[in-house]
Amino acid sequence: MAILAQLHFTLRRGTTLPRCAHHASAVQPVRTRVNALLLALALLLFGAVPTANAQSSSADTNRQIVQVSTINALISGIFDGDTTLRELKQYGSFGIGTINHLDGEMLMLDGVSYQITADGEVHQLPPDTKTPFAAVTDFHSDSVTTATNIESFDALQKAIDADLPSPNLFYAIKITGTFPEMKVRSVPRQTQPYRSLTDVVKDQSLFTYQNTSGTVVGFRCPPFVQGINVAGYHLHFLSADKRQGGHVLGFKIESGRTEIDVLPDFKLILPDSSAFLKADLRDKNEADIHAVEQIRVK
Known about the structure:
Layout: E1 6-11, H1 21-46, H2 51-60, E2 64-68, H3 71-75, E3 83-84, H4 85-89, E4 94-97, E5 105-109, E6 112-116, E7 122-124, E8 130-131, E9 134-137, E10 143-150, H5 153-163, E11 170-186, H6 197-200, E12 205-221, E13 232-239, E14 245-263, E15 265-270, H7 274-278, H8 286-293
């Protein structure tokens, strides 16, 4: 069965594009006629669509990653957004990101959002908290594998990659288990005028937890979205007792399980803030992204 990958770029409500209005009005009637013709053809050839297929189609529409802003914008120092966690939760109950002022790392698990601040503390976030960058989904396991005696982040990454159907799709990653070693970081709250994220991470706080248990939450994104998101793995950790966590830099796994959710649909919600609309996002390179997001600690 073919996989249909969709890419949606959406401007937040209130944003107007007057120069494109005539184009939209011209395209809509054509699109409506084409859709009507396709529906008529399908009914003529196949009759009524079976209920089971309709349910399957409805389920497929929920298999998406929804992202607010871009990683390049975050690297540029755009640390304030208008999307609340309440709004974000409409799109999913599982994900990662940060909150306004770049105040630490954010993780959403089972619909609850947590902040890991630069002092290593974990706080449950109220729904009116705003985020400048986040990605969420409704997690449903497509595959479950046992993770035992994994010696490094890179080793687990290679094991997962070997079992993926394609490197060109999005995947949600959930790892639950016991970790003899977990290395994470968080970043300090920023004040305006904001520095670039590349400068901020020079002041990051590093934490190494021994013999902890908990859940790793995050995504694996395809290489062609580098700059929009992080190509490869971007993971955050939350301990079982909700007292430890952060952006994952490295780990060892004693025992646990890895769950993968295949996400063929990607939706990007672009901010309409002045800072985002005026930013030059062209000069971020792979080295910048690697420096702030993909540092590996063996």
